[in-house]
Amino acid sequence: MALIELTGIERSFTLGDSEVHALAGLDLAINAGEYVAVMGQSGSGKSTLLNLLGLLDHPNTGAYRLEGRDVTTLTADEQARVRRERIGFVFQSFHLVPRLTAAENIALPLMLAGIEPAERSRRVDKALQDFGLANRADHRPDQLSGGQRQRVAIARATIMQPAVILADEPTGNLDRATGEDVIHLLEMLNAGGVTLIMVTHDAALGARARRRVVMQDGRKMTDEAT
Amino acid sequence: MKLPDTLRFATRAATGYPLRTFLMVLAMSIGVAAVVVLTALGDGARRYVVNEFASLGSNLVIVLPGRSETGGFNPVNAVTSTPRDLTVGDAQAITRAPAVLRTAPITVGTSEAVFNGKLRDVTIVGTTADYLKLRRMELAQGRFLPAEDANAAVAVIGAKIQSELFGNQPALGQVLRIGDRRLRIIGVLGQSGQGLGMNADEVVILPVTVAQAMFDTNTLFRILVEARGRPLIEQARAQALEIVKARHDGEEDVTVITQDAVLETFDRILGTLTYGVAGIAAISLAVAGILVMNVMLVAVALRTNEIGLLKALGAEAGAIRNAFLAEATLLSASGALVGYLLGQLGAFALRTAVPTLPAYPPDWAVIAALLTALSTGLLFGVMPARRAAQLDAVQALAKR
Ligand SMILES: Nc1ncnc2c1ncn2[C@@H]1O[C@H](COP(=O)(O)OP(=O)(O)O)[C@@H](O)[C@H]1O
Ligand SMILES: [Mg+2]
To answer: Which helix H or strand E contains A28, and what residues bound it?
Structure first.
């Protein structure tokens, strides 16, 4: 059984009186533990695909099965729970809460899940150690470098031990060297068993993935594994 | 998301934007403080008047010259011109009424008192021996006016007059000159305080006929009548009116009021006033409520990204709604608390500035102000919180 199974997915937006098919006739299956790079030109539907996989968006038609379960028919609260427990997001623009410290940002998913404060701080401390942020715990985002911010974001995405990490151009706002570090970190997590799905239009980064899905006009153009 | 976490999250959000929070709390606290101070003022005035009347004595019926049209007490009618004199004879006649315990005729005027070259303006009260008991006053030294001799050239002086004119010297037995009369001081009143705007510490009390002669008048300012008991107040009033009417050729040319009626009227007027100012002040609370809504709507707009993120991290719509609602409640609650403290401080300042005014805010006003502040905050916080909860996650995340 595949971790992710998309069949016949359509997602269209109406802009004025024209209809944009962001995703059209998309079938995709991804197994647990895979490392997939989603590539393609700007506007080809990469972000829409990722949002859909993360249950932030809904297809107009088609089925999405996550860990064997049809998740498109779940209620909004049930979907929130799936996001909380099974999915971790990493964004291009980090999306840290500016008034909270690094530790508090990492703790957010634990807090939303209602986990006890003692257990929370234990797990956050460990994450801070693991991600090399131990001496940055009490720093607010504006006191951190870009690379550190993305590391906080990755720590936050993995703190609930999700099945899959969805990263939309995670190095887009970073310089080359820092981007390398972040990719390395994500690859380490993947090596630890987490499924990694990463949008990028950097061919060199795409080449590092074990599988590349190239999108064009909302369709899967190529899907190759190495 | 658990309640303590929701509260902590909301607190962090409130303290994360200190200027906004400060302005918000200020607006709400001004509303609450206004209610507290204004009702303290209104209720203080009411209590002041009520105390003043109560200090006159108890079971009191007052006969005023002049007819009041409404029959009830009306401060304007009470000072209209006198058609027929109200006399000492009238007072004596009323004393014989069955429901009446005692009476005291009163003539009031001002004059200058001189002792040993020291000169002072004084309020002269001309009355009879029963005045002391009727007003429940105490003597510090000597005796009060004699009951037997209504023409005696004697005077009883207030405590302040004694200290100002005589200092440490004994006043008893000394001769005080008032106008062109020389009066022997036979008594000094104990310290008392206010009584209907007339400070009993600053009066000189003379036999009524002496005072009337001094002011060259036959009429009285009023006659104080004490009923034999509380249940007999109404009877005493009717009998007094009947007697004076009979003595004035059947014409009802006096007004007889009971202390209770006067008290009730003032109580009602000033009570209504207090509700009025409370209402006006409450409007500022409603305005503050609308401000809460706007501030929270701006907060939702400014934090759209954050809301999208929380959704991506798996927050249910309810958790987001609660967080924003908690923030609105927190802001209005701290506004209410600060306002309450400011209001109490204001009331304290009022009492310090005007010590005779018991300017304490009534409990109902304080509770109403706090409840209104909290509920408007909550009420006006609902709409922005719901708007936050209903945001589309993808669009919220994409917004810059
Ligand atoms: N909310 C939206 N409203 C209208 N059109 C949208 C919306 N989101 C995406 N699109 C359109 O869908 C297509 C795919 O967008 P997107 O998935 O963001 O592309 P990519 O991430 O590959 O650059 C684009 O043509 C884009 O303009
Ligand atoms: Mg994109």
So the answer is: strand A18-30
Indicate the residue of A57, A99, A109 with minimum beta-carbon distance to B314: A109
Distance from CA of A49 to the nearest CA of B (A): 12
pLDDT digits (tens, 9 = 90+) for B319-370: 999 999 999 999 989 999 999 999 999 999 999 998 888 999 999 888 988 8
A4 domain-assigned: no
Residue A211 lies in a domain: yes
Say which residues have a Cβ less than 8 Å from residue B181's Cβ, sequence separation at least 6. Answer: B153, B210, B214
ipTM of the predicted structure? 0.95
What is d(CA B379, CA B385) in angstroms, rounded to the nearest whole number?
A: 10
Q: How far is the CA of A13 from the centre of ligand 1 (A)?
A: 8
Q: How far is the CA of B363 from the centre of ligand 1 (A)?
A: 60
Within a domain: residue A201?
yes
Segment (H or E) for A4: strand A4-15
Query: Which residue, among B19, B310, B313, would best test binding to A if mutated, counting the most A CBs under 10 Å from its CB?
Result: B313
pTM of the model: 0.74
Site from A56, A77, A152 to mutate, B interface, most B CB atoms within 10 angstroms: A56
Give the tens place of pLDDT for each residue, B228-254.
987 888 899 999 999 999 998 888 888
Residues of B in Cβ contact (< 8 Å) with A140: none
**pLDDT means over runs of 10, chain A (226 residues):** 94 91 95 96 95 96 95 94 96 95 97 95 96 95 96 97 96 93 95 96 91 95 91
Q: What is the CATH number of the domain that holds A195?
A: 3.40.50.300
Cα distance between residue B260 and residue B368, in whole Å: 29
